[in-house]
Design brief:
It contains eight helices and twelve strands. By secondary structure, it is of the alpha/beta class. The chain has one domain: Rossmann fold. The longest helix has 20 residues.
């Protein structure tokens, strides 16, 4: 798939707005999810929406984890955590270096929040991997925990994600790599939380990467990256707590309203900026189930998954769904 990437330009006003809007956006570390299910089997990938219909895996996979050491331009170290479907008994903790399951799996690029790290989101991301997706999560050089927390550097992160995506997709053809022949390289989504949500929005606006077929934005805002969504239609799912104390719900809703493509917004009336979202079992189940069905539909072309999105989203009165998919 061809792509177009436009660099983001930082200006002083953007710096002030981002600093005010995103300070304290990281999620608290959450326990590793442990889904239970039968052993995995071979699964074929299918096109994104608009292509022939297909079906996503119905079983839950064991999960493996590994690290890639990347560096963009020699001065932007980008270690990437990969969670992936693995062989073995499902339901346990992710196993480092576990054998990749049989099949070809879509890729989801995930961007963490300011002051966060990929492992903070393991409870959610391992559920995605167990459902049949390869998750690639960069640790950003200036917004992760233990760095200078330069919020303005968020504007450089869409290009970081595109660079990391280059490297991840290349593994499918790399001799000797465990993921060789296991990636559905034409089935790719981006997702992110808070500052990572800004990063994700940027990948569909000013820094459009046209390899992306879909996006999932958690507590995101368009500050710095705008709402000029560009390129081919890519369905978007927004998830936002209506009691968000960092990024106002209205700010996320404004970006959602600007999306010209198929879209839905999962709103949690009692949800905060994401800490409770990743540690509260009931809320996490609703969010993870809804996002999994969305990814099954957009990346596997699974029409039955699309039909399940609304039912899962409105379960137990935890959330409401504005659905324009």
């Amino acid at each position: 798939m061809s792509r177009r990437r436009t660099p983001l330009v930082a200006v002083p006003l953007v710096a002030v707005l981002l600093t005010v809007g995103l300070v304290g956006c990281s999620a608290a570390p959450a326990p590793t999810a442990r889904p239970a299910a039968p052993a995995p089997s071979e699964q074929a990938t299918t096109p994104a929406p608009g292509g022939p219909a297909g079906s996503a895996p119905t079983e839950t996979f064991a999960v493996g984890v590994r690290q890639l050491k990347l560096n963009r331009d020699g001065d932007r170290p980008l270690p990437v955590t990969l969670w992936y479907p693995a062989r073995g008994e499902a339901g346990g903790a992710p196993q480092r270096g576990a054998t990749v399951a049989a099949g070809r799996f879509p890729v989801v690029m995930f961007s963490h929040g300011l002051g966060g790290r990929p492992q903070d989101y393991a409870a959610l991301l391992t559920r995605w991997a167990a459902a049949g997706f390869v998750i690639a999560a960069p640790t950003f050089p200036h917004t992760s925990r233990g760095t200078d927390s330069n919020v303005l550097d968020v504007l450089n992160q869409p290009a970081d994600v595109s660079y990391a995506l280059d490297a991840v997709l290349a593994l499918d053809g790399k001799a000797g790599d465990p993921l060789r022949g296991r990636l559905a390289t034409d089935r790719v989504a981006a997702a992110g939380h808070s500052a990572g949500g800004v990063t994700t929005i940027g990948l569909f606006t000013a820094g459009r990467d046209e390899r992306l077929d879909a996006g999932v934005v958690f507590a995101g805002t368009g500050l710095g990256v705008g709402t000029a969504f560009a390129g081919a239609a890519a369905p978007q799912l927004f998830v936002h707590g209506q009691a968000d104390e960092v990024v106002e719900y209205a700010a996320g809703k404004a970006v959602y309203d600007a999306v010209p493509w198929p879209k839905a917004m999962l709103s949690l009336p009692k949800g905060d900026h994401g800490r409770a979202l990743l540690s509260d079992g009931a809320s996490l189940r609703v969010v993870s189930d809804t996002t999994v069905e969305f990814l099954r539909w957009t990346l596997y072309g699974d029409a039955k998954a699309k039909a399940r999105i609304a039912a899962g989203a409105t379960r137990d009165d935890i959330a409401t769904l504005d659905n324009h998919l």
